[in-house]
Amino acid sequence: MSTQLPVAGPAEVRAALIRDLGADRRSVVGVVLVNGLAAAAGLVGPWLLGRIIDTIRAGSGDVLSAVDRLAFGALLFTVVQTVLAWWALKIGYRFGERTAARVRERFLQRTLALPPRVADHLPTGDLISRGSTDASLVALTLRSAVPEVLVATVHALFLIVAVLFLDLRLGLCGLVCLLGVGAAVRWYVRRARPVYLAVASTGAEIADVVASTAKGARTVELLGLERRRTEAAEASITQARSARLAALWLRTVLFPWSEIALALPVVGVLLIGGALYAHDLVSLGVVVTATVYLRQLVGPLDTLMLWIEQLQGAGASYARVEGLADIPEAELTPRVESVAGDRIRVDNAHYSYTGARDVLHGIDLVVQPGERLAIVGTSGAGKSTLARLLAGLDRPHIGSVTIGGTPVADLPPDQLREHVVLITQDHHVFHDTVRDNLLIAKPTATDDELHAALTAVGATWWNDLPHGLDTELGEETTLDDASAQQLSLARVVLADPHTLILDEATALLDPKTARQTERSLAAVLRGRTVIAIAHRLQTAHDADRIAVMEAGHLVELGTHQTLVTTNGPYGQLWQTWHAEPNSP
Ligand SMILES: Nc1ncnc2c1ncn2[C@@H]1O[C@H](COP(=O)(O)OP(=O)(O)OP(=O)(O)O)[C@@H](O)[C@H]1O
Protein backbone atom coordinates (compact mmCIF):
# COMPACT_ATOMS: atom_id res chain seq x y z
CA MET A 1 0.00 0.00 0.00
CA SER A 2 0.98 3.61 -0.27
CA THR A 3 3.04 4.90 2.62
CA GLN A 4 0.61 7.82 3.08
CA LEU A 5 -2.10 7.37 5.68
CA PRO A 6 -5.57 8.37 4.49
CA VAL A 7 -7.46 11.41 5.80
CA ALA A 8 -11.22 11.16 6.33
CA GLY A 9 -13.46 13.44 4.25
CA PRO A 10 -15.81 16.07 5.81
CA ALA A 11 -18.84 13.73 5.50
CA GLU A 12 -17.01 10.92 7.33
CA VAL A 13 -15.93 13.32 10.10
CA ARG A 14 -19.53 14.52 10.47
CA ALA A 15 -20.74 10.91 10.61
CA ALA A 16 -18.10 10.05 13.24
CA LEU A 17 -19.06 13.10 15.32
CA ILE A 18 -22.77 12.23 15.12
CA ARG A 19 -21.93 8.63 16.12
CA ASP A 20 -19.85 9.88 19.06
CA LEU A 21 -22.57 12.30 20.18
CA GLY A 22 -25.22 9.59 19.69
CA ALA A 23 -23.29 7.12 21.82
CA ASP A 24 -23.85 9.44 24.82
CA ARG A 25 -27.11 11.04 23.74
CA ARG A 26 -28.51 11.32 27.28
CA SER A 27 -25.69 13.65 28.24
CA VAL A 28 -26.06 15.71 25.05
CA VAL A 29 -29.82 16.09 25.67
CA GLY A 30 -29.02 16.88 29.32
CA VAL A 31 -26.60 19.67 28.35
CA VAL A 32 -29.09 21.22 25.93
CA LEU A 33 -32.04 20.97 28.36
CA VAL A 34 -30.31 22.25 31.49
CA ASN A 35 -28.62 24.97 29.55
CA GLY A 36 -31.88 25.92 27.90
CA LEU A 37 -33.31 26.43 31.40
CA ALA A 38 -30.23 28.47 32.35
CA ALA A 39 -30.62 30.66 29.26
CA ALA A 40 -34.35 31.13 29.98
CA ALA A 41 -33.53 32.16 33.55
CA GLY A 42 -30.93 34.58 32.15
CA LEU A 43 -33.59 36.33 30.06
CA VAL A 44 -35.64 37.31 33.10
CA GLY A 45 -33.03 39.74 34.56
CA PRO A 46 -32.92 42.22 31.64
CA TRP A 47 -36.70 41.96 31.23
CA LEU A 48 -37.17 42.90 34.91
CA LEU A 49 -34.69 45.77 34.38
CA GLY A 50 -36.94 47.10 31.61
CA ARG A 51 -39.92 46.76 33.94
CA ILE A 52 -38.05 48.71 36.67
CA ILE A 53 -37.36 51.56 34.21
CA ASP A 54 -40.96 51.66 33.01
CA THR A 55 -42.28 51.51 36.64
CA ILE A 56 -40.08 54.44 37.68
CA ARG A 57 -41.09 56.42 34.60
CA ALA A 58 -44.81 55.76 35.26
CA GLY A 59 -44.25 56.92 38.89
CA SER A 60 -47.68 55.73 40.15
CA GLY A 61 -48.36 53.70 43.36
CA ASP A 62 -45.67 52.41 45.70
CA VAL A 63 -42.75 52.73 43.28
CA LEU A 64 -40.05 51.87 45.83
CA SER A 65 -41.46 48.53 46.98
CA ALA A 66 -42.33 47.58 43.35
CA VAL A 67 -38.72 48.30 42.32
CA ASP A 68 -37.45 46.29 45.33
CA ARG A 69 -39.55 43.28 44.34
CA LEU A 70 -38.42 43.50 40.73
CA ALA A 71 -34.74 43.88 41.73
CA PHE A 72 -35.01 40.88 44.10
CA GLY A 73 -36.54 38.85 41.26
CA ALA A 74 -33.65 39.85 38.94
CA LEU A 75 -31.11 38.74 41.59
CA LEU A 76 -32.91 35.45 42.18
CA PHE A 77 -32.99 34.57 38.49
CA THR A 78 -29.31 35.48 38.07
CA VAL A 79 -28.45 33.00 40.84
CA VAL A 80 -30.69 30.33 39.25
CA GLN A 81 -29.03 30.95 35.87
CA THR A 82 -25.53 30.61 37.36
CA VAL A 83 -26.35 27.32 39.10
CA LEU A 84 -28.03 25.83 36.01
CA ALA A 85 -25.15 26.92 33.73
CA TRP A 86 -22.63 25.31 36.13
CA TRP A 87 -24.67 22.09 36.14
CA ALA A 88 -24.90 22.07 32.31
CA LEU A 89 -21.13 22.51 32.02
CA LYS A 90 -20.55 19.68 34.51
CA ILE A 91 -22.67 17.28 32.44
CA GLY A 92 -20.90 18.56 29.32
CA TYR A 93 -17.38 18.03 30.65
CA ARG A 94 -18.20 14.50 31.78
CA PHE A 95 -19.64 13.76 28.36
CA GLY A 96 -16.50 15.24 26.77
CA GLU A 97 -14.14 13.08 28.86
CA ARG A 98 -16.04 9.89 28.00
CA THR A 99 -16.18 10.72 24.29
CA ALA A 100 -12.50 11.66 24.18
CA ALA A 101 -11.64 8.29 25.72
CA ARG A 102 -13.82 6.57 23.11
CA VAL A 103 -12.01 8.34 20.23
CA ARG A 104 -8.58 7.42 21.62
CA GLU A 105 -9.58 3.79 22.17
CA ARG A 106 -10.97 3.55 18.65
CA PHE A 107 -7.70 4.89 17.22
CA LEU A 108 -5.67 2.45 19.31
CA GLN A 109 -7.86 -0.51 18.35
CA ARG A 110 -7.65 0.37 14.66
CA THR A 111 -3.88 0.69 14.89
CA LEU A 112 -3.49 -2.60 16.74
CA ALA A 113 -5.76 -4.37 14.26
CA LEU A 114 -3.48 -3.45 11.36
CA PRO A 115 -1.66 -6.51 10.07
CA PRO A 116 2.13 -6.30 10.63
CA ARG A 117 2.81 -6.08 6.89
CA VAL A 118 0.69 -2.87 6.77
CA ALA A 119 1.80 -1.42 10.11
CA ASP A 120 5.45 -1.99 9.24
CA HIS A 121 5.23 0.29 6.20
CA LEU A 122 3.28 3.14 7.74
CA PRO A 123 5.10 6.45 8.25
CA THR A 124 5.94 6.27 11.97
CA GLY A 125 5.95 10.04 12.57
CA ASP A 126 2.53 10.46 10.96
CA LEU A 127 1.06 7.59 12.96
CA ILE A 128 2.57 8.91 16.21
CA SER A 129 1.35 12.46 15.63
CA ARG A 130 -2.17 11.17 14.84
CA GLY A 131 -2.21 9.10 18.01
CA SER A 132 -0.77 11.88 20.19
CA THR A 133 -1.14 15.51 18.98
CA ASP A 134 -4.25 14.94 16.83
CA ALA A 135 -6.00 12.63 19.29
CA SER A 136 -5.26 15.11 22.14
CA LEU A 137 -6.67 18.03 20.17
CA VAL A 138 -9.82 16.03 19.35
CA ALA A 139 -10.09 14.98 23.01
CA LEU A 140 -9.63 18.55 24.26
CA THR A 141 -12.21 19.82 21.78
CA LEU A 142 -14.75 17.16 22.68
CA ARG A 143 -14.14 17.78 26.37
CA SER A 144 -14.34 21.58 26.27
CA ALA A 145 -15.60 22.80 22.90
CA VAL A 146 -18.64 20.57 22.45
CA PRO A 147 -20.21 21.50 25.84
CA GLU A 148 -19.27 25.17 25.53
CA VAL A 149 -20.47 25.40 21.91
CA LEU A 150 -23.76 23.72 22.84
CA VAL A 151 -24.16 26.06 25.80
CA ALA A 152 -23.27 29.17 23.77
CA THR A 153 -25.54 28.17 20.86
CA VAL A 154 -28.56 27.60 23.09
CA HIS A 155 -27.87 30.86 24.94
CA ALA A 156 -27.50 32.88 21.69
CA LEU A 157 -30.70 31.38 20.22
CA PHE A 158 -32.68 32.22 23.36
CA LEU A 159 -31.42 35.83 23.30
CA ILE A 160 -32.27 36.30 19.61
CA VAL A 161 -35.75 34.79 20.02
CA ALA A 162 -36.30 36.93 23.13
CA VAL A 163 -35.49 40.18 21.26
CA LEU A 164 -37.83 39.15 18.44
CA PHE A 165 -40.62 38.48 20.92
CA LEU A 166 -39.94 41.70 22.81
CA ASP A 167 -40.24 43.85 19.73
CA LEU A 168 -40.24 42.43 16.20
CA ARG A 169 -38.79 45.62 14.66
CA LEU A 170 -35.86 45.76 17.08
CA GLY A 171 -35.35 42.01 16.74
CA LEU A 172 -35.17 42.20 12.93
CA CYS A 173 -32.81 45.16 13.16
CA GLY A 174 -30.54 43.11 15.46
CA LEU A 175 -30.65 40.14 13.08
CA VAL A 176 -29.74 42.25 10.02
CA CYS A 177 -26.79 43.71 11.92
CA LEU A 178 -25.67 40.16 12.82
CA LEU A 179 -25.22 39.32 9.12
CA GLY A 180 -21.70 40.79 9.33
CA VAL A 181 -20.72 38.11 11.87
CA GLY A 182 -22.17 35.41 9.60
CA ALA A 183 -20.16 36.73 6.64
CA ALA A 184 -16.93 36.70 8.71
CA VAL A 185 -17.49 33.10 9.82
CA ARG A 186 -18.40 31.95 6.30
CA TRP A 187 -15.27 33.53 4.85
CA TYR A 188 -13.12 31.84 7.50
CA VAL A 189 -14.67 28.35 7.43
CA ARG A 190 -14.39 28.12 3.62
CA ARG A 191 -10.64 28.58 3.80
CA ALA A 192 -9.82 26.85 7.05
CA ARG A 193 -10.02 23.07 6.32
CA PRO A 194 -7.13 22.80 3.82
CA VAL A 195 -5.03 25.22 5.89
CA TYR A 196 -5.46 23.23 9.13
CA LEU A 197 -4.94 19.90 7.34
CA ALA A 198 -1.66 21.33 6.05
CA VAL A 199 -0.70 22.43 9.60
CA ALA A 200 -1.29 18.89 10.91
CA SER A 201 0.42 17.04 8.06
CA THR A 202 3.49 19.32 8.00
CA GLY A 203 3.78 18.80 11.77
CA ALA A 204 3.69 15.05 11.16
CA GLU A 205 6.30 15.46 8.42
CA ILE A 206 8.72 17.02 10.94
CA ALA A 207 8.07 14.11 13.32
CA ASP A 208 8.74 11.67 10.46
CA VAL A 209 12.04 13.26 9.46
CA VAL A 210 13.23 13.47 13.07
CA ALA A 211 12.08 9.90 13.90
CA SER A 212 13.72 8.36 10.82
CA THR A 213 16.96 10.31 11.38
CA ALA A 214 17.07 9.19 15.02
CA LYS A 215 16.30 5.58 14.06
CA GLY A 216 19.04 5.50 11.43
CA ALA A 217 21.47 7.65 13.42
CA ARG A 218 24.33 5.17 13.06
CA THR A 219 23.85 4.87 9.28
CA VAL A 220 23.62 8.67 8.99
CA GLU A 221 26.90 8.99 10.87
CA LEU A 222 28.65 6.18 8.97
CA LEU A 223 27.67 7.50 5.54
CA GLY A 224 28.18 11.17 6.50
CA LEU A 225 24.57 12.04 5.72
CA GLU A 226 24.26 14.67 8.49
CA ARG A 227 23.97 17.62 6.10
CA ARG A 228 21.32 15.93 3.97
CA ARG A 229 19.26 14.98 7.01
CA THR A 230 19.58 18.51 8.43
CA GLU A 231 18.43 19.94 5.09
CA ALA A 232 15.45 17.55 5.04
CA ALA A 233 14.52 18.64 8.59
CA GLU A 234 14.91 22.32 7.64
CA ALA A 235 12.72 21.85 4.55
CA SER A 236 9.94 20.26 6.60
CA ILE A 237 10.22 23.00 9.26
CA THR A 238 9.92 25.65 6.53
CA GLN A 239 6.78 23.97 5.16
CA ALA A 240 5.28 23.71 8.65
CA ARG A 241 6.07 27.40 9.26
CA SER A 242 4.27 28.50 6.06
CA ALA A 243 1.26 26.34 6.95
CA ARG A 244 1.11 27.89 10.42
CA LEU A 245 1.50 31.42 9.03
CA ALA A 246 -1.43 30.75 6.67
CA ALA A 247 -3.55 29.67 9.67
CA LEU A 248 -2.43 32.74 11.62
CA TRP A 249 -3.38 35.01 8.73
CA LEU A 250 -6.92 33.58 8.71
CA ARG A 251 -7.18 34.34 12.42
CA THR A 252 -5.85 37.89 12.10
CA VAL A 253 -8.65 38.62 9.61
CA LEU A 254 -11.44 36.75 11.45
CA PHE A 255 -11.04 38.21 14.93
CA PRO A 256 -10.92 42.00 14.23
CA TRP A 257 -13.70 41.63 11.64
CA SER A 258 -15.96 39.73 14.03
CA GLU A 259 -15.22 42.14 16.94
CA ILE A 260 -16.54 45.01 14.86
CA ALA A 261 -19.47 42.95 13.54
CA LEU A 262 -20.48 41.99 17.11
CA ALA A 263 -20.86 45.66 18.15
CA LEU A 264 -23.19 46.43 15.23
CA PRO A 265 -26.47 44.92 16.61
CA VAL A 266 -26.26 47.05 19.79
CA VAL A 267 -25.53 50.21 17.78
CA GLY A 268 -28.33 49.38 15.32
CA VAL A 269 -30.94 48.75 18.05
CA LEU A 270 -29.92 51.92 19.95
CA LEU A 271 -30.35 54.01 16.78
CA ILE A 272 -33.61 52.41 15.60
CA GLY A 273 -34.94 52.02 19.18
CA GLY A 274 -34.05 55.69 19.89
CA ALA A 275 -35.94 56.83 16.77
CA LEU A 276 -39.00 54.66 17.64
CA TYR A 277 -38.96 55.93 21.26
CA ALA A 278 -38.77 59.55 20.05
CA HIS A 279 -41.99 58.92 18.11
CA ASP A 280 -43.62 57.11 21.07
CA LEU A 281 -43.70 53.84 19.15
CA VAL A 282 -41.87 51.86 21.84
CA SER A 283 -41.27 52.19 25.60
CA LEU A 284 -37.86 53.08 27.00
CA GLY A 285 -37.88 49.82 29.03
CA VAL A 286 -38.24 47.70 25.86
CA VAL A 287 -35.35 49.53 24.16
CA VAL A 288 -33.15 49.03 27.25
CA THR A 289 -34.12 45.33 27.55
CA ALA A 290 -33.45 44.72 23.82
CA THR A 291 -30.09 46.50 24.10
CA VAL A 292 -29.10 44.46 27.15
CA TYR A 293 -30.13 41.20 25.37
CA LEU A 294 -28.08 42.09 22.31
CA ARG A 295 -25.18 43.19 24.49
CA GLN A 296 -25.40 39.81 26.26
CA LEU A 297 -25.25 38.13 22.86
CA VAL A 298 -21.59 39.19 22.60
CA GLY A 299 -20.66 36.63 25.29
CA PRO A 300 -21.94 33.45 23.57
CA LEU A 301 -21.02 34.71 20.11
CA ASP A 302 -17.47 35.46 21.28
CA THR A 303 -17.29 31.93 22.70
CA LEU A 304 -18.56 30.51 19.39
CA MET A 305 -15.95 32.53 17.44
CA LEU A 306 -13.13 31.28 19.63
CA TRP A 307 -14.26 27.70 19.29
CA ILE A 308 -14.89 27.95 15.55
CA GLU A 309 -11.19 28.66 15.25
CA GLN A 310 -10.28 25.70 17.45
CA LEU A 311 -12.90 23.52 15.75
CA GLN A 312 -11.19 23.98 12.38
CA GLY A 313 -7.91 22.65 13.77
CA ALA A 314 -9.73 19.90 15.67
CA GLY A 315 -11.79 19.04 12.55
CA ALA A 316 -8.56 18.48 10.61
CA SER A 317 -7.23 16.36 13.48
CA TYR A 318 -10.50 14.40 13.67
CA ALA A 319 -10.16 13.72 9.92
CA ARG A 320 -6.62 12.41 10.49
CA VAL A 321 -7.61 10.25 13.47
CA GLU A 322 -10.64 8.85 11.62
CA GLY A 323 -8.55 8.42 8.45
CA LEU A 324 -7.23 5.12 9.77
CA ALA A 325 -10.67 3.64 9.07
CA ASP A 326 -10.10 4.43 5.38
CA ILE A 327 -7.22 2.04 4.87
CA PRO A 328 -8.54 -0.03 1.94
CA GLU A 329 -10.23 -3.29 2.95
CA ALA A 330 -7.83 -5.18 0.69
CA GLU A 331 -4.96 -4.02 2.91
CA LEU A 332 -6.64 -5.35 6.03
CA THR A 333 -7.12 -8.93 6.97
CA PRO A 334 -10.44 -10.64 7.45
CA ARG A 335 -10.41 -13.43 10.04
CA VAL A 336 -9.38 -16.72 8.53
CA GLU A 337 -11.83 -19.40 9.65
CA SER A 338 -9.33 -22.21 9.92
CA VAL A 339 -5.79 -22.92 8.84
CA ALA A 340 -5.41 -26.47 7.53
CA GLY A 341 -2.26 -27.80 9.18
CA ASP A 342 1.16 -26.47 10.17
CA ARG A 343 3.07 -27.02 6.94
CA ILE A 344 4.88 -23.95 5.62
CA ARG A 345 5.26 -23.63 1.85
CA VAL A 346 7.14 -21.02 -0.10
CA ASP A 347 6.26 -21.14 -3.81
CA ASN A 348 8.20 -19.14 -6.38
CA ALA A 349 8.54 -16.18 -3.98
CA HIS A 350 9.91 -12.95 -5.44
CA TYR A 351 10.34 -9.90 -3.23
CA SER A 352 11.50 -6.35 -3.75
CA TYR A 353 11.88 -3.57 -1.14
CA THR A 354 11.85 -0.75 -3.64
CA GLY A 355 9.78 -2.16 -6.51
CA ALA A 356 12.82 -1.74 -8.76
CA ARG A 357 15.11 -4.67 -7.91
CA ASP A 358 14.17 -8.12 -6.62
CA VAL A 359 16.16 -9.28 -3.59
CA LEU A 360 14.51 -12.71 -3.60
CA HIS A 361 14.28 -14.54 -6.93
CA GLY A 362 11.74 -17.39 -7.02
CA ILE A 363 12.33 -19.18 -3.70
CA ASP A 364 10.71 -22.65 -3.35
CA LEU A 365 10.76 -24.31 0.04
CA VAL A 366 8.60 -26.65 2.13
CA VAL A 367 9.15 -26.82 5.89
CA GLN A 368 7.66 -29.89 7.58
CA PRO A 369 5.98 -29.58 11.01
CA GLY A 370 8.51 -30.17 13.79
CA GLU A 371 11.50 -29.69 11.48
CA ARG A 372 14.60 -27.65 12.37
CA LEU A 373 15.75 -25.74 9.34
CA ALA A 374 18.85 -23.55 9.28
CA ILE A 375 19.23 -20.83 6.67
CA VAL A 376 22.84 -19.89 5.89
CA GLY A 377 24.39 -17.50 3.39
CA THR A 378 26.66 -14.52 3.02
CA SER A 379 25.66 -11.04 4.12
CA GLY A 380 22.95 -9.59 1.85
CA ALA A 381 21.97 -13.03 0.48
CA GLY A 382 18.32 -12.43 1.53
CA LYS A 383 18.09 -14.53 4.72
CA SER A 384 16.37 -11.86 6.83
CA THR A 385 14.05 -10.96 3.97
CA LEU A 386 12.96 -14.59 3.66
CA ALA A 387 12.49 -14.69 7.45
CA ARG A 388 10.18 -11.63 7.23
CA LEU A 389 8.08 -13.33 4.54
CA LEU A 390 7.89 -16.54 6.57
CA ALA A 391 6.79 -14.52 9.61
CA GLY A 392 4.02 -12.79 7.61
CA LEU A 393 5.59 -9.31 8.02
CA ASP A 394 5.51 -8.90 4.25
CA ARG A 395 4.13 -10.71 1.26
CA PRO A 396 5.99 -11.62 -1.95
CA HIS A 397 4.96 -9.61 -5.01
CA ILE A 398 5.06 -12.84 -7.04
CA GLY A 399 4.47 -16.31 -5.61
CA SER A 400 3.21 -17.18 -2.14
CA VAL A 401 4.18 -18.04 1.43
CA THR A 402 1.50 -20.15 3.11
CA ILE A 403 0.82 -21.98 6.37
CA GLY A 404 -1.62 -24.87 5.95
CA GLY A 405 -2.57 -23.37 2.56
CA THR A 406 -3.37 -19.87 3.94
CA PRO A 407 -1.13 -16.93 2.95
CA VAL A 408 0.76 -16.06 6.17
CA ALA A 409 0.55 -12.31 5.56
CA ASP A 410 -3.27 -12.56 5.40
CA LEU A 411 -3.57 -13.68 9.01
CA PRO A 412 -4.68 -10.94 11.43
CA PRO A 413 -2.13 -10.29 14.26
CA ASP A 414 -3.89 -12.37 16.94
CA GLN A 415 -4.22 -15.37 14.61
CA LEU A 416 -0.74 -14.94 13.16
CA ARG A 417 0.96 -15.21 16.54
CA GLU A 418 -0.82 -18.52 17.21
CA HIS A 419 1.03 -19.93 14.19
CA VAL A 420 4.34 -18.22 13.74
CA VAL A 421 6.50 -15.79 15.74
CA LEU A 422 9.70 -14.10 14.63
CA ILE A 423 12.28 -13.81 17.41
CA THR A 424 14.96 -11.19 16.91
CA GLN A 425 17.10 -9.21 19.30
CA ASP A 426 14.47 -6.47 19.29
CA HIS A 427 12.34 -7.09 22.32
CA HIS A 428 10.11 -4.51 23.84
CA VAL A 429 9.27 -4.02 27.48
CA PHE A 430 6.26 -1.74 27.92
CA HIS A 431 6.08 0.79 30.78
CA ASP A 432 3.41 -1.31 32.39
CA THR A 433 3.01 -4.13 34.89
CA VAL A 434 4.68 -7.50 34.31
CA ARG A 435 1.18 -8.95 33.98
CA ASP A 436 0.11 -6.57 31.21
CA ASN A 437 3.44 -7.04 29.46
CA LEU A 438 2.66 -10.75 29.26
CA LEU A 439 -1.08 -10.59 28.60
CA ILE A 440 -0.54 -8.94 25.20
CA ALA A 441 0.51 -12.41 23.99
CA LYS A 442 -2.53 -14.15 25.49
CA PRO A 443 -5.16 -11.84 26.97
CA THR A 444 -7.05 -14.73 28.60
CA ALA A 445 -4.06 -16.22 30.47
CA THR A 446 -4.43 -16.87 34.22
CA ASP A 447 -1.77 -15.85 36.76
CA ASP A 448 -0.71 -19.51 37.00
CA GLU A 449 -0.12 -19.61 33.25
CA LEU A 450 1.92 -16.38 33.45
CA HIS A 451 4.06 -17.80 36.26
CA ALA A 452 4.50 -21.05 34.33
CA ALA A 453 5.61 -19.16 31.19
CA LEU A 454 8.19 -17.15 33.17
CA THR A 455 9.46 -20.29 34.88
CA ALA A 456 9.69 -22.14 31.53
CA VAL A 457 12.16 -19.58 30.17
CA GLY A 458 14.18 -19.57 33.39
CA ALA A 459 13.03 -16.10 34.48
CA THR A 460 13.47 -16.84 38.19
CA TRP A 461 13.64 -13.09 38.92
CA TRP A 462 9.85 -12.89 39.06
CA ASN A 463 10.03 -14.35 42.59
CA ASP A 464 11.95 -11.26 43.76
CA LEU A 465 9.65 -8.64 42.24
CA PRO A 466 8.30 -6.24 44.92
CA HIS A 467 4.66 -6.63 43.84
CA GLY A 468 4.83 -9.87 41.87
CA LEU A 469 3.03 -9.67 38.54
CA ASP A 470 1.73 -6.19 39.47
CA THR A 471 5.23 -4.70 39.58
CA GLU A 472 5.49 -1.71 37.24
CA LEU A 473 8.34 -2.20 34.82
CA GLY A 474 10.37 0.86 33.93
CA GLU A 475 9.25 2.62 37.14
CA GLU A 476 9.79 0.45 40.20
CA THR A 477 11.94 -2.13 38.43
CA THR A 478 14.06 -2.17 35.31
CA LEU A 479 15.04 -5.44 33.64
CA ASP A 480 18.54 -6.11 32.33
CA ASP A 481 18.93 -7.31 28.73
CA ALA A 482 18.77 -11.03 29.51
CA SER A 483 15.68 -10.63 31.73
CA ALA A 484 13.94 -8.45 29.14
CA GLN A 485 14.65 -11.10 26.49
CA GLN A 486 13.23 -13.72 28.88
CA LEU A 487 10.08 -11.66 29.28
CA SER A 488 9.60 -11.57 25.52
CA LEU A 489 10.32 -15.32 25.29
CA ALA A 490 7.69 -15.91 27.99
CA ARG A 491 5.26 -14.09 25.67
CA VAL A 492 6.18 -16.61 22.97
CA VAL A 493 5.45 -19.48 25.39
CA LEU A 494 2.03 -17.92 26.06
CA ALA A 495 1.24 -17.33 22.38
CA ASP A 496 2.28 -20.95 21.81
CA PRO A 497 2.93 -20.80 18.05
CA HIS A 498 3.81 -24.04 16.24
CA THR A 499 6.62 -22.31 14.33
CA LEU A 500 9.44 -20.04 15.47
CA ILE A 501 11.73 -18.06 13.23
CA LEU A 502 15.00 -16.97 14.78
CA ASP A 503 16.87 -14.06 13.25
CA GLU A 504 19.98 -12.95 15.11
CA ALA A 505 18.27 -13.64 18.42
CA THR A 506 21.59 -13.82 20.25
CA ALA A 507 24.15 -12.73 17.65
CA LEU A 508 25.01 -9.32 19.08
CA LEU A 509 24.53 -10.06 22.79
CA ASP A 510 27.47 -10.10 25.17
CA PRO A 511 28.63 -13.68 25.86
CA LYS A 512 27.04 -13.91 29.35
CA THR A 513 23.66 -12.60 28.20
CA ALA A 514 23.85 -14.74 25.05
CA ARG A 515 24.43 -17.90 27.10
CA GLN A 516 21.51 -17.09 29.39
CA THR A 517 19.24 -16.27 26.43
CA GLU A 518 20.25 -19.45 24.59
CA ARG A 519 19.23 -21.51 27.63
CA SER A 520 15.85 -19.74 27.74
CA LEU A 521 15.46 -20.15 23.99
CA ALA A 522 16.13 -23.88 24.15
CA ALA A 523 13.09 -24.25 26.44
CA VAL A 524 10.93 -22.27 24.02
CA LEU A 525 12.04 -24.18 20.92
CA ARG A 526 11.15 -27.59 22.31
CA GLY A 527 8.33 -29.27 20.33
CA ARG A 528 8.06 -26.54 17.67
CA THR A 529 9.08 -26.09 14.05
CA VAL A 530 12.20 -23.89 14.07
CA ILE A 531 13.60 -21.91 11.18
CA ALA A 532 16.87 -20.32 12.28
CA ILE A 533 19.09 -17.92 10.42
CA ALA A 534 22.39 -19.48 11.32
CA HIS A 535 25.36 -17.24 11.89
CA ARG A 536 27.48 -20.03 13.30
CA LEU A 537 27.90 -23.19 11.28
CA GLN A 538 27.51 -25.23 14.47
CA THR A 539 23.81 -24.19 14.50
CA ALA A 540 23.49 -25.38 10.89
CA HIS A 541 25.24 -28.64 11.73
CA ASP A 542 22.66 -29.37 14.48
CA ALA A 543 19.65 -28.65 12.22
CA ASP A 544 17.61 -31.30 10.35
CA ARG A 545 18.15 -29.52 7.04
CA ILE A 546 20.09 -26.55 5.79
CA ALA A 547 18.96 -24.02 3.17
CA VAL A 548 21.83 -22.14 1.54
CA MET A 549 21.15 -18.73 0.03
CA GLU A 550 23.23 -16.71 -2.40
CA ALA A 551 22.23 -13.35 -3.91
CA GLY A 552 18.51 -13.92 -3.36
CA HIS A 553 18.50 -17.52 -4.67
CA LEU A 554 18.09 -20.74 -2.73
CA VAL A 555 21.09 -22.61 -4.08
CA GLU A 556 21.22 -25.72 -1.85
CA LEU A 557 18.84 -27.58 0.44
CA GLY A 558 19.62 -30.77 2.34
CA THR A 559 21.02 -32.37 5.48
CA HIS A 560 24.44 -31.41 6.75
CA GLN A 561 25.83 -34.79 5.69
CA THR A 562 24.46 -34.57 2.13
CA LEU A 563 25.65 -31.02 1.61
CA VAL A 564 29.13 -31.77 2.94
CA THR A 565 29.36 -34.83 0.66
CA THR A 566 28.14 -32.84 -2.38
CA ASN A 567 30.88 -30.30 -1.60
CA GLY A 568 28.88 -27.36 -3.00
CA PRO A 569 28.88 -23.85 -1.45
CA TYR A 570 27.95 -25.22 2.01
CA GLY A 571 30.53 -28.02 1.88
CA GLN A 572 33.25 -25.52 1.03
CA LEU A 573 32.09 -23.13 3.77
CA TRP A 574 32.18 -26.02 6.26
CA GLN A 575 35.69 -27.05 5.23
CA THR A 576 36.99 -23.47 5.46
CA TRP A 577 35.44 -23.07 8.89
CA HIS A 578 36.86 -26.40 10.09
CA ALA A 579 40.27 -25.40 8.91
CA GLU A 580 40.16 -22.29 11.15
CA PRO A 581 42.26 -22.79 14.29
CA ASN A 582 39.55 -21.82 16.81
CA SER A 583 36.70 -23.90 15.31
CA PRO A 584 35.55 -26.77 17.57
N1 LIG B 1 14.69 -2.17 4.20
C1 LIG B 1 15.36 -2.42 3.07
N2 LIG B 1 15.22 -1.61 2.01
C2 LIG B 1 15.87 -1.86 0.84
N3 LIG B 1 16.70 -2.90 0.67
C3 LIG B 1 16.89 -3.75 1.69
C4 LIG B 1 16.23 -3.55 2.96
N4 LIG B 1 16.62 -4.54 3.79
C5 LIG B 1 17.47 -5.33 3.08
N5 LIG B 1 17.63 -4.85 1.83
C6 LIG B 1 18.45 -5.43 0.76
O1 LIG B 1 17.95 -6.73 0.50
C7 LIG B 1 19.00 -7.64 0.24
C8 LIG B 1 18.85 -8.82 1.20
O2 LIG B 1 19.02 -8.33 2.52
P1 LIG B 1 18.84 -9.26 3.81
O3 LIG B 1 18.94 -8.38 5.00
O4 LIG B 1 17.63 -10.07 3.62
O5 LIG B 1 20.13 -10.18 3.69
P2 LIG B 1 20.76 -11.11 4.82
O6 LIG B 1 21.16 -12.34 4.10
O7 LIG B 1 19.84 -11.26 5.97
O8 LIG B 1 22.02 -10.27 5.23
P3 LIG B 1 22.68 -10.12 6.71
O9 LIG B 1 23.21 -11.47 7.08
O10 LIG B 1 23.76 -9.12 6.49
O11 LIG B 1 21.58 -9.65 7.60
C9 LIG B 1 20.30 -6.86 0.44
O12 LIG B 1 20.76 -6.47 -0.84
C10 LIG B 1 19.89 -5.66 1.24
O13 LIG B 1 20.68 -4.55 0.91
TrEMBL record:
SUPFAM superfamilies from the UniProt entry: ABC transporter transmembrane region, P-loop containing nucleoside triphosphate hydrolases
Domain ABC transmembrane type-1 positions: 29-313
Location of the protein in the cell: Cell membrane
Primary location class: membrane
Membrane topology: Multi-pass membrane protein
GO terms assigned for molecular function: ABC-type oligopeptide transporter activity; ATP binding; ATP hydrolysis activity
UniProt-recorded name of the protein: ABC transporter ATP-binding protein
